[in-house]
Amino acid sequence: MDRRRALGLLAGAGVAGLAAPARAAATPVIEWNQHMFSANTAKFPFHPQAVYKPDASSFQADPLAAYEKQMAETGIDRGMLVQPEPYGDDHRLVLDCLHRASPAKFKGTSLFYPKNPESSKKLTALAKAEPRIVATRFHAHRGKEMYLDSFGTPYVRALWKAAVESGLIIELHIGPNYALQAADAIRAFPGCKVLIDHMCEPKLGTPYEYANVLDLAKLPNVYMKISGMGYIAADKPDYPSLLPFTSRLIKEFGPERIVWSDGSPHIADVHMKGYSAADIAKVKGGNLQKLLNWA
Amino acid sequence: MDRRHILGLMGAGAASLAAGAARAAATPVIEWNQHMFSRDVARFPFSPRGTYKPDATRLSADPLADYQARMKAVGIDRALFVHPEPYGDDHTLVLDCLARTSPSQFKATSMFFPKDDDAPAKLEALVKQHPRICSTRFHLHRGNTAYFASFAEPGVRALWKKAVDLNLVVELDLGPNYARDAGAAIAAFPGCKVLIDHMCNPKTGMIWEYGDVLDLAKYPNVYMKMSSLGYMAPQDGPDYPSLIPYTRRVIKEFGPDRMVWSGDSPHIADVHMKGYPAADIAKVKGGNLQRLLNWT
């Protein structure tokens, strides 16, 4: 190699090295985790079929303002408002928040009762009327078996199909013992986009069941959310005691399909030590930006 | 590359494969798992300090003969008698079994109470008198915290040191929540030989704690025993294929040179190591223990 060529390559590498931090700095931090709960239960009542009903007296009058303040404090640029279970399939509060906020800053998720024969139709209607609703969620883990009997049931498959046809992401709040049957459903809808909540709730399974969770990484378009660390470790705010666990989880899904949420985005820096700044930026928001096509 | 060179390489590859298969066939199958329990409680009484006491009426009159029959049935060549907890630190039954068998076929393990000041001296006396005792075991997991609370306790470290000085293998019947604590003890005795029982009892730990178990693979001479799969997947015997996503990862972390099959049939190693060369599977079935125990 001649000197000119070597210098050219070095300069190219320098530019590439500079470009990566610039890209990382330009990547928004996006959180997909926050529930909105309102103290105003007259305007936003809990659903009669809600699987739990929180104490509304502890809620903010304006949860959106409180969340925006928290976002500013922790450096979150954009957020997904996650439809909470107590409101069931009544999305008025999430929609109210979306309508009061910029489309550039917030999107929302949905929730339906899979056993309800009307759910697929309701989902299609909601997604059509409110394009900022970009996902629907299924719950199934130990202690939460009431929504569905199996991911193989016709009613789950029908709702999943409606979501895929509406271009929604499937959000799975599942436990490790449901990973195998969830994999079958994912395979049944090639190309469907899936986000697994809270590291697949490791508190609700065994180490050998969790291997089936890690196997979900073999399926394309399956993203894993690293969140809920405070439920399994006490060493907040960064939970370094979990590194032997999170490092393996991140390795299996890879930095292209891991999504940070919950607490401070600094958690991604701690749990991805050794990864490039560009990779960490993807996990803090770049992956969600791409998944949601959120320019 | 010319044709002669290619054919030469192919010939060398075939020869290497054939040599590997021959080595695999010559490697003994060794199990390190079987407890001996005798119905004869007058001759082999349970220890008053035993953490549990089995129903003696359901035990065999001749556990050794039963085990030898099972070994023959499933193709086990050699074995270690694992001293059971109910006998405490009274090794009479294990020693009786050793005395009735060939040194080329059986060795055994021991157990002591780490809180006893004289446990290291007892261990040394036992091993000096009975060199076929090649290991001592520590128990600590959720549901079995009777012996000690931490591997940092002076009694544990003293017993561990004595085991290392006697060139014994330290056997750990451990739970995932104690893996980090055990790792500190392993690090304190560089080069010590350790065998972790039963995949580190995953049923007694949390998923994130199991990350600490896998981290133990970074220490040299730490071996992982793939056993007790029936406790995790009782519906899925005899080969437990539903556990393959799990066992595959554990095998990958420790590698085929530090995995040890035991329990049920050695065919489990074939099923759970599908894709590995025969020579690697033979190591897991017995070659690794043969090397670890220097058992020619």
Question: What attributes does this structure have?
Answer:
heterodimer; A: 295 residues; alpha/beta; TIM Barrel; eight-stranded parallel sheet; 10 helices; globular; B: 296 residues; 41% helix
Q: How does this model look, in words?
A:
The complex is a heterodimer of chains A (295) and B (296). By secondary structure, chain A is of the alpha/beta class. Chain A has a single domain, classed as Metal-dependent hydrolases (TIM Barrel), CATH 3.20.20.140. Chain A contains ten helices and eight strands. Chain A has helices spanning 3-26, 63-74, 92-100, 119-129, 154-165, 179-188, 207-215, 243-253, 266-271, 277-291; strands at 30-35, 78-82, 106-111, 133-140, 169-174, 194-196, 222-226, 258-260. In chain A, strands 1-2-3-4-5-6-7-8 form an eight-stranded parallel β-sheet. Chain B is α/β, with parallel strands linked by helices and 296 residues long. Chain B has one domain (29-292): Alpha-Beta Barrel (TIM Barrel), CATH 3.20.20.140. Chain B has eleven helices and eight strands. Chain B has helices at 3-26, 63-74, 92-99, 119-129, 154-165, 179-188, 207-215, 229-232, 244-254, 267-272, 278-292; strands at residues 30-35, 78-82, 106-111, 133-140, 169-174, 194-196, 222-226, 259-261. In chain B, helix 1 packs across helix 11 (278-292) and helix 4 (119-129) runs parallel beside helix 5. The relative contact order of chain B is 0.11.
